[in-house]
Amino acid sequence: QVWQIRLDMHLLNHDGNITDAASIAGIVALCHFRRPDVSVQGEEVTVYTPEERDPVPLSIHHMPICVSFAFFHQGTYLLVDPTEREERVMDGLLVIAMNKHHEICTIQSSGVVMLLQDQILRCSKITAVKVGEITELIQKALENDQKARKEGGKFGFAESIPNQRITAFKMESAAVDTSDVEEQAGEIIAKADPPSEVFASPVLHTPGTAQIGEGIESSWGDLEESEKEEAAEEEGESEAAAFECEKVETEDTSTLKETKNEPIVLSDSEEEEVVILEPQELPRKTR
Amino acid sequence: AAPQGRLLCGPGLRRSGAGLLVTKCGLLRHRPAGGGAYWVDSQQKRYVPVKGDHVIGIVTAKAGDVFRLDVGGSEPASLSYLAFEGATKRNRPNVQVGDLIYGQFVVANKDMEPEMVCIDSSGKSSGMGIIGQDGFLFKVSLGLIRKLLAPKCEIIQELSQLYPFELVLGMNGRIWVKAKTVQQTLIIVNILEACEYMTAEQRRQALAKLSGN
After folding, report:
1. Quick check: A170 and B45 CB within 8 A?
2. ipTM score
3. B51 within 8 A of B107, measured Cβ to Cβ
4. Looking at the domain A18-160, which fold is it?
């Protein structure tokens, strides 16, 4: 003959992560439960009523507690103990059940996320910390209850509601301190690497000359010179600049050849930095 | 003297023999109109499908000619593709998994799987159908929905002074809101959620602060 025990869980209200809450409720209920005392003498089994002998607790060897992790963006972001809204949009969920001796009892992974080994190790470390805290809380609550019963004080579910020890229908949302958000944001921006040089369009080779696209080599040599000189004068450039521009003009063919090898930035690109890979730089993949 | 006419026994009450039994905890309400009606005004968040209720459902699967919708009950509801206005075998409605549907129950009892339609008895859609893109769906308690659906609800009138927005209320505790920008939408969502616990005075203060900004 054995004892059979049944645990029914009624969900009154939730804001996500029912697994964790239910695991805590279940294990606490089992630890708190008292069964009638029994004495066995040979074949005779006597079951004592609670009035005859104090009921005895179940022999619970360890307290496994579940901790859930929600993943977003293919494992980039990790949230411990997700709320209802976070659960609805998460990519994947990892549930680790552990006891206070850091023994993993259950690992369950669901969703469409692929996890790396070090991610799972990190999650198990977080679980160890959380489970330690929760187990301590449970022990303290059980002790308080036992003390209250011994001293004849009030105890139980109905007594806990008015003291706000059980959140009845509503939980105060945690206030987020946004007082120094601007400073923090400023710090982050200051510490970050400065953005790479923006290749403005058109590309300026020297003051007074600009290049948009490649273009065909001009056959109107004289006209271009005078055009560019006029442009330089309009911009208020010095004669030295104009002289340079002439020099560039004579070296036109050579610069054109050079620019053909350089990455040419065309104006319409939205990218700040356009990197064109040279064929010989690409790593050769061996099959 | 007892009023003439049939006395209606509403939600939370059940006839047993000659008397009435109360099956839910809450406030007993009475409406003298008609023959008189008694019901228990209870607060709960879990929805049980009731025939005739207009609800917001989320499409979870397409099984042949029938869509499976999650309405927050114990079972998914079924919705035939022909139950839309102007739908024929050739002209199917464009419903994808994950879409929101506003419809009403034609079959909802404890023995059968609930069935929904998006047309009323005359074949017109009368506001039901696929709810558009964007917007935000969230859950509240059933009591708040009933309060918001009451005629001349103060909360909705005060909110409409704030920003223009679209609102769909499902009797299964789901509300869909869409305003011009994401921020406005979220502000309305937060106010509606907080309305459950705020008094009328606190609500007016909060709205005054928002419209002042």
Report:
1. no
2. 0.73
3. yes
4. Ribosomal Protein S5; domain 2 (3.30.230)
**Secondary structure of chain B in the HEC alphabet?**
CCCCCCCEECCCEEEECCEEEECCCCEEEEECCCCCEEEEECCCCCCCCCCCCEEEEEEEEEECCEEEEECCCCCCEEEECCCCCCCCCCCCCCCCCCCEEEEEEEECCCCCCCEEECCCCCCCCCCCEEECCCCEEEECCHHHHHHHHCCCCHHHHHHHHHCCEEEEECCCCEEEEEECCHHHHHHHHHHHHHCCCCCHHHHHHHHHHHHHC
Q: CB neighbours (10 Å) of residue A36?
A: 14
The C-alpha atoms of residue A231 and residue A227 are separated, in whole angstroms, by 6
Residue in B138, B139, B197 nearest the CB of A170: B197
B45, A13: Cβ pair inside 8 Å?
yes
Residues of B in contact with A13 (CB under 8 A): 45
Among B42, B45, B70, B185, which would you mutate to test the A interface (most chain A Cβ atoms within 10 Å of its Cβ)?
A: B45
pLDDT tens profile A19-48: 999 999 999 999 999 999 999 898 888 889
The pTM of this model reads 0.66
B138: chain A residues, CB-CB within 8 Å: 85
Query: What is the amino acid identity at position A114?
Result: M
Distance from CA of A158 to the nearest CA of B (A): 16
Give me the residue spans of the domains in chain A: 18-160
Domains contained in chain B, CATH given = 8-41 (no CATH), 53-130 (2.40.50.140), 136-211 (3.30.1370.10)
pLDDT digits (tens, 9 = 90+) for B91-115: 888 898 989 999 999 999 888 999 9
**Residues of A whose CB is below 8 A from B197:** 170
User: How far, in Å, CA of A123 to CA of A154, rounded?
Assistant: 40
